[in-house]
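Archive transcription. Copying these from loose printouts into the bound notebook so they stop getting lost. Printout 1 of 2:
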Amino acid sequence: MVSFIVRRILVSILVLLAASFIMYVLAANSGNPLQDLQGSNSPNRQALIEARIAQQHLDVIPPLRWVLWLGGVAKCVVPVGGGCDLGTTFANQPVTVLLPSAMVSTLQLVTLAFILAIVLGIALGIVTALRVYSGFDYTITLFSFFLFSLPSFLMAVLLKSFVALGYNSFLADPHIPLSTLIVVGVVLGVLVQLAVGGPLRRRLVAFFATGILSALILGLLSAADWFTHPQLGPVFVILFTAAIGFGIVSLLAGIHNRRAILTAAINVLIAIIAYFALQGLFNISSVGTLLTLAIVTVAVGLISGYFVGGYDRGLMMRIGGLTAFLSAGVVLLDRFVQSWDNYVALIGGRPIATVGSQTPSLGGDVWITGIDTYTHLLLPTISLLLISFAGYTRYSRSGMLEVLDQDYVRTARAKGLPERTVIVRHAFRNMLIPIATLIATDIGALLGGAVITETVFAISGMGALFNSGLQRTDVNPIMGYFLVIAITAIAFNFLADLAYAALDPRVRVR
């Protein structure tokens, strides 16, 4: 194992060196780095040109400049002679200062979209594989290919035009007409009956129940002015946390497993008690307080699963941890909603933002700033999510179909195991092997795709840093962007190799 890791590190260093050389030479020859100064009317134009040439070593050919840049990168690995040095921009700003803030903005944007794309894509892929060649399968397949074919800039522009501007205008008069309620009910009813499948009578019941219920709920929310003054309250928290516990138990263990029911019930009860007990603490909370509560919440879920688990502690700990984490999310969601009216008043009544990652000079507590971050990153996250999850859906579907045709799955069914156990415990793990490869390759592409998304939404992240450097032929910020992308891609490919051994006992690292 140690020798494998050492070999991979050495190979990765060689790949990184070769790729950085090619990237540096291409970036340096992509344009004229003095173009803005040569077209200037400044009386000291020649002095500015000579200063930039001296600062950026533009009188040295690009391969030798790459060697100088590499010397500064080496100081980041072995901090001697002044510490890490990735060069400076044309504005004389150190790249090592610009990178951290740009990375934070991009990670905020990419991380949630990446996680949601994996979760939703795998879930939909499994469902379509179990309902192969059904109406639901054909609908998801068509939807996936449609999203996969859309350019990222077009998706971003459509979201800004129809979601942000449309919803902000809707809030000025939040009344849903009857025709819209009928259309929404019909669309949701069609989607649900496709997912339910089965005999015609069953699908008709699902269609009418879903359509009537969704139209009724939207009508009540509109009549109660919920869209301008949203609130959840204890009834919602209790019902939703109970539904989370029931769903996790049904999915992972089955509703007949008493230990699973007890584990989920303990964590749901703790979440409900915490909802009433921690309201005062929430009013004075900070980010550190919320992170501490999150760690304690997951720890309580794992501990409860360990003591209740008996012969199957691993499964009970997963049930306890997931139930505790998701239930705590519902409690936090309620607290964020309580601050929604104050936030809307502070920003002038149009909450869904279309540019930037935060509102300049916005004051407020952790709840106000949290809502502000959410409203700014909502559309970019949806844009990246819709484009990314289509691939995971297709790979999950094909992987599950291949696994379901294996002998060990047929044997598990022949032994009389429940279908949920066959899918979750036997097929799901082996289906994840190609997904691990896809995740490793997709993370670099997702970070690269954020260049376009950040440009459309005016977010000052890694994409903006790369784009501004490319437009001015400013090589140092381009290479800073390259380093982050390349190291991330190499690290995730290495983790994918290790994941193969964890997912498939036949794979061993030698």
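Printout 2 of 2:
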Amino acid sequence: MTAARIEENRSHPRLPDLLATYHLANQAEQDKAVATVAELPAVYRAEAEAEDPAAAFAADTVLLATPPGADEPAGCVVLKAPREGRAPEIKRLWVAPEARRKGLAKALMAEALRRAADSGVPAVRLTVWNWREEPLALYRGLGFEIVASWDDRPDLLCLERRLDLIERLDPDAVRAHAPAGLAELLVDAVDSGASVGFLAPLETAEAAAWWSRVAEEAAEGVRDVWAARAPDGRLTGVVTLVRAGTANGRHRGEIARLLVHRCARGRGLGYRLLATAEAHAAATGLSLLVLDTQTGSPAERLYRGAGWTAAGTIPDFAADPAGTLRATTLYYKQV
């Protein structure tokens, strides 16, 4: 499956049309239907008019999603800039009806959350009408929780999500986290059936020893390590990037050990970790990334959705944690 294309562009000519459709549908849902943009409340009309679509969001991040194979964006979302010390707010999530059920809303939310986390803010918030069951289910699946209201409009729910911080670990940090946080991530992955090079049960000491070796590779400049840290300080995910050691492969790297703890899955953290490693690879001169994963595993959906291409499948390549030989699919991505 080809991934949707996400771009930041508050001046895209398609944006006013998307926002107009959003606001007209929103008014109709509230029994305040109007027929044209000109009849919208002034604050909404300013967003949906084509004369200067960027002005309404001059300080904000506007993301657009284009479905695979399409030429024009069919979805949008706005990440508002933090104001008065409050957490940034996600607004105007909209996907055109003809482009729904293609993952655009989730891709837009994942990118908005990644950008918010990269900015260093501890949380993101949003509002949703209580009758909008499908968006509410999406937000809850991404880790948003209903909190005390900051908007007194009836039937409007206020939600917030605390953000995991992704940070690069230097060799000393890898060594420090090896006995506990990093070892726990590896043990959890094996316990949940992930084929990551170990058989079950994996002892914590063995997992910690593996991470200690990774620390040495990090010190040698062979491997880069990023970890996600929850607001309470726990490590919730990790990814590593291994650089090819041969003279003719210095343009190439491998994504290895992308792990998200079971308590943090389903919230876009794997996507954020992967995107962080990809961005660093491109910024440091790598142009090609490769990885392998167990065929049919949930990880395949992540990689395909992030724009990776399957190069082929090898039968009986590696044993799963229970010792059963499984096929592995090889992926690549040019960055």
